[in-house]
């Protein structure tokens, strides 16, 4: 029997691929698309980066690694150890949704090229926090003390999304703008050698189908192909060949970007706009839009392979996990187009075919008005690993009532509930999975009242908490025993996971 298994698996694989091809062909017909220029064909490396840290929103191309290293917690009460007060704009200071910092342990040769303070260039294991703020600045801080490592970078527009650092560890920074306070809006690429802007892409573009130019999406860098991918709220997907030249010895960095813009329309969906961060597995890119349509793009053929019909606004980033070489997506919607009451729809989806493996619905609320506050899934889910490799964990806003929330762990295979935690206050902040050396998992979850909780990822039991004093919409990033997160109260906080 053992000798026959490879042939049976091969036959089954061919059958599945045949079925997938037929479903892909029918699904792709729902999309009309056009590229402004032919983009570079590309495949992403299995490992997003070889640099220590969290370099983009949720840390990887699969958007599944918001923490780096291990944390040996015993007290399970996050201890605030430093705080920085930001400037302010019409949107205040601190950070909002998604607002995750990048945390980078720079390689020694790269560190010597940059304009950080001299004392830090001599610091062994120097690790820098890079945090974009609603005040229109990007701050640079030493991880353990919060001391500013160089002058803030003035962007000029409030930043609502999360920065990305070049996955090669090059001193190149992506910053997407959120609100057009200075008359223009788009995304920029900045040299961290001297903090000069090397490139700017305007979001208001006659080629786009929507006239809103914000970039809340956090870019992905492809370190093998010298490219960048990002989605825009103008409804376009960007593939950028960077043509990077970096010389650490000469302390020079130059790029000559070639931009290819993908615009699309999907039958039954009139809402353009990509607020979630593009997720990638191998040569497949995935994103959703403000109408709730999901789509998959083949980065070798540079064409869509499937789309799903509109459900509701989907701002939370898709998370990917491969099973036997097949990517599966975990995603969910908010309550927006449904009105003040509706359902957050959570799904597991086959990334090759678009087939929905399982679906769960949770009743949630949205506060309507001039400044609506949406309920449902705004937080990007946690993809369980190691001791919790059987589950995916979602955080829902305004579940049960306008002010409360729900954290739920679902079985990856079946979608059945493993545990739930009813939250007194709702949350937009994404949960973070943290592991000790033995693979035991804890969760960090912030809420709209300014609390940061530590939970057992096995049971959902709250093990400890601390208060940061103001609404935490932003998502934490973790490096070892240190967590960093900002609040809507105008502060960036560093915490020790004791």
Across the major sheet, the strand order is 1-18-15-14-13
Q: Radius of gyration, rounded?
A: 21 Å
**Full CATH superfamily name:** YVTN repeat-like/Quinoprotein amine dehydrogenase
Query: How many β-strands, per DSSP?
Result: 39
The best one-word shape is: globular
The CA-CA distance between the termini, in Å, is: 52 Å
Structure description:
The chain is mainly β and 498 residues long. The protein has one domain: YVTN repeat-like/Quinoprotein amine dehydrogenase (Methylamine Dehydrogenase, Chain H, 7 Propeller), CATH 2.130.10. 6% of the residues lie in helices and 39% in strands. It contains three helices and 39 strands. The strands form ten sheets. The chain has a five-stranded antiparallel sheet with strand order 1-18-15-14-13, with no helix packed on it. A five-stranded antiparallel sheet has the order 2-5-6-7-8, with no helix packed on it. A five-stranded mixed sheet has the order 3-37-38-39-4, with no helix packed on it. The longest helix has 24 residues, at 5-28. The protein starts with a helix and ends with a strand. 55% of the residues are buried.
Describe the structure concisely.
With 498 residues, the protein is mainly beta. It contains three helices and 39 strands. A hairpin with a 4-residue loop joins β34 and β35.
């Amino acid at each position: 029997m053992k000798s026959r298994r490879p042939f049976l698996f091969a036959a089954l694989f061919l059958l599945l691929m045949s079925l997938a091809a037929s479903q892909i062909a029918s699904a792709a017909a729902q999309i009309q698309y056009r590229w402004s220029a032919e983009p570079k064909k590309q495949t992403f490396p299995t490992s997003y980066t070889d640099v220590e840290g969290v370099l983009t929103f949720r840390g990887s191309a699969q958007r599944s690694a918001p923490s780096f290293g291990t944390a040996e917690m015993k007290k399970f009460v996050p201890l605030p150890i430093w705080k920085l007060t930001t400037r302010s704009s019409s949107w205040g200071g601190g950070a909002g949704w998604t607002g995750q910092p990048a945390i980078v342990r720079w390689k020694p040769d790269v560190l010597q090229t940059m304009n950080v303070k001299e004392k830090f260039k001599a610091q062994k294991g120097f690790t820098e926090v890079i945090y974009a703020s609603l005040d229109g600045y990007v701050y640079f801080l030493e991880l353990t003390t919060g001391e500013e490592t160089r002058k803030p970078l003035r962007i000029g527009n409030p930043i609502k999304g999360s920065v990305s650092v070049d996955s090669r560890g090059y001193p190149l920074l992506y910053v997407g703008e959120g609100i057009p306070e200075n008359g223009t809006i788009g995304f920029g690429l900045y040299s961290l050698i001297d903090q000069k802007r090397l490139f700017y892409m305007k979001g208001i573009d006659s080629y786009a189908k929507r006239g809103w130019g914000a970039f809340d999406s956090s870019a992905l860098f492809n370190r093998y192909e010298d490219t960048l991918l990002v989605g825009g709220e103008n409804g376009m997907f960007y593939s950028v060949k960077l043509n990077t030249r970096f010389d650490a010895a000469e302390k020079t960095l130059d790029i000559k970007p070639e931009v290819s813009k993908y615009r699309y329309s999907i039958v039954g969906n009139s809402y353009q706009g990509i607020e979630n961060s593009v997720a990638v597995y191998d040569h497949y890119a995935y994103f959703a839009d403000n109408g709730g349509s999901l789509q998959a793009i083949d980065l070798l053929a540079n064409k869509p392979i499937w789309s799903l019909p509109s459900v509701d606004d989907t701002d939370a980033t898709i998370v990917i996990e491969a099973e036997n070489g097949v990517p599966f997506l975990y995603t969910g919607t908010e309550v927006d187009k449904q009105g003040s009451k509706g359902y957050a729809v959570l799904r597991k989806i086959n990334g090759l075919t678009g087939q929905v493996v399982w679906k769960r619905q949770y009743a949630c609320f949205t506060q309507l008005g001039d400044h609506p506050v949406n309920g449902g899934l705004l937080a990007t889910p946690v993809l369980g690993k190691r001791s919790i490799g059987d589950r995916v964990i979602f955080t829902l806003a305004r579940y049960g009532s306008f002010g409360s929330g729900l954290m739920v762990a679902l079985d990856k295979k079946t979608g059945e509930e493993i545990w739930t935690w009813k939250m007194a206050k709702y949350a937009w902040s994404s949960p973070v999975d943290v592991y000790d050396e033995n693979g035991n998992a804890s969760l960090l979850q912030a809420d709209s009242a300014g609390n940061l909780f530590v939970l057992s990822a096995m049971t959902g039991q709250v093990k400890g908490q601390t208060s940061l004093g103001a609404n935490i919409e932003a998502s934490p990033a973790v490096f070892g025993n240190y967590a960093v997160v900002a609040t809507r109260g105008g502060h960036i906080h560093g915490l020790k996971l004791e």
